[in-house]
Design brief:
Layout lengths: L5 E2 L13 E5 L2 E6 L2 E6 L2 E5 L5 E2 L13 E5 L2 E6 L2 E6 L2 E4 L1
Antiparallel strand pairs: 1-5, 2-3, 3-4, 4-5, 6-10, 7-8, 8-9, 9-10
């Protein structure tokens, strides 16, 4: 069995309709939220690297004072709203 990083203390059950952005890759689905990508695996959730997942149809510009909570995330800032975290990337926003 190969080693993988387990995300401990995860009470939410990911699946279709759970409300989180999803990315299909490498034979499984990652669910993106709170700056993490999680994949259900056996009786736990694996922590995976963040995929590039563009948020479609986002017509609101995020910036300081836009009304959404800023969250420091590595070398950039995410903005939280409607259960998602968005980060500016080129001409669109990414799900984080």
């Amino acid at each position: 069995m190969s080693e993988h990083e387990v995300h401990s203390g995860h009470d939410h059950e990911h699946g279709p309709g759970c409300g989180h952005a999803r990315a299909e890759r490498a034979g499984h689905v990652d669910y993106v939220h709170d700056g993490h990508a999680h994949a259900p695996h056996a009786d736990h959730v694996d922590e995976h690297p963040m995929p590039h997942l563009a948020h479609p149809g986002h017509d609101h510009g995020h910036e300081p004072g836009c009304g959404h909570a800023p969250i420091a995330h590595g070398d950039h800032v995410d903005y939280a709203h409607d259960g998602h975290r968005h980060a500016a990337h080129d001409d669109h926003y990414d799900e984080h």
